[in-house]
Design a protein that fits this description.
533 residues, alpha/beta
């Protein structure tokens, strides 16, 4: 890698900055090219592969010839293909067509399907065969069904996407790639919304693609899946390429050390819980849905006691979000009662719930967790600024706020370019999440409601957050956890409640159940007769 002091690098950086100023590229290109070069005050000299290719070419030419003309030629050679591949396709909307022409397909973490279209319509969308302006679906249907049979991706081509399961929607996304004859298949966090059984099926499908000679890029943070299906693994840490290893020659522990830079403890160390009195009591709670006319939460009852972690497990979209909205005050329930330490808070404002001892790590950190245009320091005191510690007769004590924010930043390793003065919007998602967790845990709540608290965090940060949650439990706090990660559910919880289509369908002791059994309840295949929490 080129040295920072190299004259060639300095000249290249100056020319690139000048080009950027005179003719700024589109926003997407700026983010890809510049994200790791200058991220506010954080300087990362080893940028992403595209930029690395540019700097290496320029450095090599400069070092070998020591000629300015060669340097300019190298700069032009490096930037011209980037402009062709990124700037022109973006200008004319060719990105998808160019990717298809190159045989590249992608299954996004959040599926790109039209819910009111049929499965067949979604698969052929954008590459439809027409005759005299009329769609010709017969041949497309035959090809889709042949692909479905060949790869074991059973689908109903006439079903509406809105009526099929998440796992079935993923099959549709995979068939979209196969229908376009893609040979390079990219899967971005493909197992985030799948049951254990669906994950196993996906792994088998990917092995089949490999045997057929297709190339697969599998983007994930789940080490078990990496070890199960990958041949090689490349690791990035803090935007820097760390290395590539053969899976057969490595272990989860070695991979995690590459990802974090130190050894990681995978097992959550916690002593048996000693539950006390009920802190949160939910009875016959009903919360309406904003998506359809039915209720998203239908007569749910459970409690969370002091000194225990209760986890709500389920496939995304089965009422978990609306349940938490009702408990935390983000949505108004239409039925049932919610009590916090015996006090009825069913209709209480959010601030009153906070004052009563409830902390909330929200599912959507941008919408409900942060004011993105506020500084990190201001976000740290969003729910405490009225306390005497931070204000005097209505005036904020800036010094106290900064001292408090600096303490949390250091304690929770929240990385930001300008410390407490950093604008929250400029921070990475993982560091935004750590800032929210720091704020909510430090309030010393009686009830901690944590919804996917480790989303977007590396294995080292996950380890730290798990220890914090267990520490809160051991202090006698009640913890209500919602997680889509079954490993997290099994390792962290003292009781597990499975939710399916807005109802609690089972209650489990994690020491006496298996991931496979939970998966059956999460998919609606099984239901306890009289499941009570």
């Amino acid at each position: 890698m080129i040295a920072v002091t190299s004259p060639g690098f300095v000249l290249f950086a100056a020319l690139l900055a000048g080009l950027w100023y005179v003719c700024p590229p589109p926003r997407r290109w700026q983010l890809m090219l510049g994200a790791n070069l200058v991220f506010y005050a954080v300087l990362c000299w080893q940028a992403l592969p595209v930029l690395l290719a540019c700097t290496f070419l320029v450095w090599w030419c400069g070092r070998r010839t020591a000629a300015k003309g060669t340097f300019y030629a190298g700069l032009a050679a490096a930037l011209f293909p980037l402009l062709l591949l990124k700037y022109l396709p973006a200008a004319f909307g060719w990105q998808g067509k160019l990717a298809n022409a190159l045989g590249i397909g992608m299954v996004h973490q959040h599926f790109k399907l039209v819910e009111c279209f049929t499965v067949l319509d979604n698969i052929i969308l954008g590459v439809e065969d027409t005759k005299h302006g009329f769609l010709q679906k017969d041949e497309a249907r035959k090809k889709v069904m042949a692909l479905s049979e060949k790869y074991g991706l059973k689908v109903d081509p006439d079903a509406l996407v809105s009526d099929i399961s998440v796992g079935m929607q993923q099959r549709v996304e995979i068939l979209k790639m196969l229908y376009r004859d893609n040979e390079i298949l990219i899967f971005d966090e493909p197992t985030a919304v799948l049951t254990p059984q669906e994950i196993d099926e996906l792994m088998e499908i990917m092995r089949g693609f490999k045997a057929e000679g297709k190339s697969i890029l599998f983007i994930t943070h789940k080490l078990n899946e990496i070890m199960a299906v990958s041949d090689r693994c490349s690791v990035l840490r803090k935007g820097k390429y760390i290395g590539t290893v053969d899976i057969k020659d490595t272990t989860k522990e070695e991979l995690s050390k590459m990802m974090v830079g130190r050894d990681v403890q995978f097992a959550v160390e916690k002593k048996p819980s000693e539950p006390g009195k009920p802190i949160l009591e939910v009875e016959n709670l009903v919360v309406p849905s904003k998506v359809h006319k039915n209720n998203a939460v239908r007569g749910v009852s459970f409690n969370v006691r002091a000194g225990e972690i209760v986890c709500i497990a389920g496939i995304d979209g089965n009422g978990q979000s609306e349940l938490i909205y009702g408990i935390t005050g983000l949505e108004k329930p239409t039925g049932g009662t919610i009590r916090l330490e015996g006090r009825d808070i069913t209709n209480a404002p959010i601030r009153e719930r906070s004052k009563a001892g409830m902390s909330h790590i929200p599912e959507d950190r941008h919408k409900h967790g942060l004011v993105l245009d506020y500084t990190l320091a201001d976000n740290m005191v969003l729910q405490r600024y009225w306390q005497p510690e931070f204000q005097n007769h209505g005036f904020i004590k800036k010094g106290a706020v900064l001292d408090y924010a600096e303490r949390l930043i250091k304690q929770y390793d929240v990385r930001s370019g300008q410390g407490p003065a950093t604008i929250a919007r400029s921070m990475s998602g993982g560091n935004q999440q750590k800032a929210i967790i720091a704020r909510e845990v430090d309030k010393d709540p009686q009830l901690l409601v944590a919804v996917q608290p480790t989303r977007g965090l590396d294995v080292g940060a996950i380890e730290y957050i798990h220890r914090q949650i267990v520490a809160e439990r051991d202090k006698g706090r009640a913890v209500l956890l919602v997680s889509l990660e079954l490993d997290e559910v099994m390792n962290l919880s003292d009781r597990i409640l499975v939710i399916y289509e807005g109802e609690i369908v089972g209650e489990f002791d994690p020491r006496k159940t298996t991931v496979e059994e939970l998966g059956l309840y999460m998919a609606g295949a099984k239901k306890q007769g009289e499941a009570k929490a």
